[in-house]
């Protein structure tokens, strides 16, 4: 995060507050989020894309009411993909016209709620959904703005579970074989739907912008086909999210202005070649905004050297607050943050307190050789897909999210308690 520094005794502080104070006040583990950094990233995306484009923050990365307020104030729109995310967006006052509803199997209730609320866009993902959204819109007496999610057939260079534009996966309607063109025909035949554009999301944690270029080219190709076949020039395209962030020092992500220029240029060039007016562009970054803004603060509980192998450092959380290492082989860094140390490096594996050996937070990293129980360690870049994918495995209450801003720290999502867990257990 942006406003992180080390004080005199080597203690790390964020936004002017020391981690020891944070741990005392809020407990560990805790996600510590730098609000100024979050807002700065929103602004960087907004400014990079300018007034001719829209930036939809992907709420799945991390969403709560405070985040919705920041987005609203910084001029971003919001992509939601469930009834829960929609409810959070509406509860925090996001204007419905700035909300897009996603999902490959939206329930009838989710569709109804979104249409009734007046969301600005529903992104259609299947033939069945075309009828469902058309029916809901007709019932509410509105003409719902929709985009069609197109599968462009790009092999994104990322983990299999988070690649979404190759043919053999569940999202979207394929360009190849004509499913997308067929969906266009069906949507245009529905009076209660207004087809405003096409959507493509190729995957997540992607560094190579070439995949986005191929995606843009193919989406514009379909726009041209729609003009030729139906005489309609659709006014919008959305190229999704997926921009990678630095989890470790080896990663080298692109900046928003570079991404904006690449996408704008390719869309403009392809449209010119096809004789099409340039549509309004939108993107949906989640990780690139939220990811770098938070770290997870843990307390070391045990230190177990395995001679000839490595040292296992156990923390008071684990796969329940960060499933990404276990699920995607994700790489993370770690640092001793409560004090300075002059000790040499030791090879560690940072593990959690859960009952399985896959409960790894950081697979391979170095910590000072004198790292000991009671020390605080931090894992950076946990602002996206950590709290939002947290679980109650082993009946573990989920950690709070503490936002630091202007020298003050406040809880924006409180820590779960054992009472919270027991409340659901009504047997
Ligand atoms: N738009 C759509 C339609 C999406 O499906 C996603 C992510 C995004 C935007 C935002 O992607 P981002 O900019 O955050 O990469 N849990 C996985 C990531 C799953 C992403 C799912 N869709 C992880 O922890 O890596």
UniProtKB/TrEMBL annotation:
Designated gene of the protein? lysA
N6-(pyridoxal phosphate)lysine modifications at: 60
Q: Which cofactor does it need?
A: pyridoxal 5'-phosphate
| Domain Orn/DAP/Arg decarboxylase 2 N-terminal as annotated: residue spans | 36-290
Give the catalysed reaction(s), semicolon-separated.
meso-2,6-diaminopimelate + H(+) = L-lysine + CO2
| Protein name, UniProt field | Diaminopimelate decarboxylase
**Family named by the database record:** Belongs to the Orn/Lys/Arg decarboxylase class-II family. LysA subfamily.
Residues bound to pyridoxal 5'-phosphate are 242, 284-287, 385
In its UniProt entry, the species of origin is given as Streptomyces hoynatensis
State one Pfam family annotation. Orn_DAP_Arg_deC
